[in-house]
Amino acid sequence: MTDPLGQQRPIDIKAQLQACRSKEDTFKTLVMLSKTQPRLTAEEKTEDNKIKGCESAVWLIIEEKDGLRHFKADSDAKLMRGVLVAILSLVKGKSLADIQQMDLKAELAELNLSSYLTSSRTNGVLAILDKITSH
């Protein structure tokens, strides 16, 4: 199912990833999800928006409207774009206080991504979570 903007709902993304029964299924699902993530413009891919510590180049923009957080993100790697879709599905449209109340690491653990989160990717994901929860 999609929301009015054509984006997949978080529960659907979670269900899709949890339904994966192999590393290949998870990879295909992440690549498919990566195609739903709008790309950032060259002007948005600034050093200020770049996440430090990621294996791939990752940019994250946080915007707040009416107390709710909205995110724009991109990566030079399809797999990481898929991971971004999964992460952002958990937090988009929530307030910073609500996001800070969440156990995002536990939520991510439920998404069946562990085989793709190598130590260097895990560092990048932790840096993304830090930016999401601290700004």
UniProtKB/TrEMBL annotation:
<protein>
    <submittedName>
        <fullName>SufE family protein</fullName>
    </submittedName>
</protein>
<dbReference type="Pfam" id="PF02657">
    <property type="entry name" value="SufE"/>
</dbReference>
<dbReference type="InterPro" id="IPR003808">
    <property type="entry name" value="Fe-S_metab-assoc_dom"/>
</dbReference>
<comment type="similarity">
    <text>Belongs to the SufE family.</text>
</comment>
<feature type="domain" description="Fe-S metabolism associated">
    <location>
        <begin position="16"/>
        <end position="133"/>
    </location>
</feature>
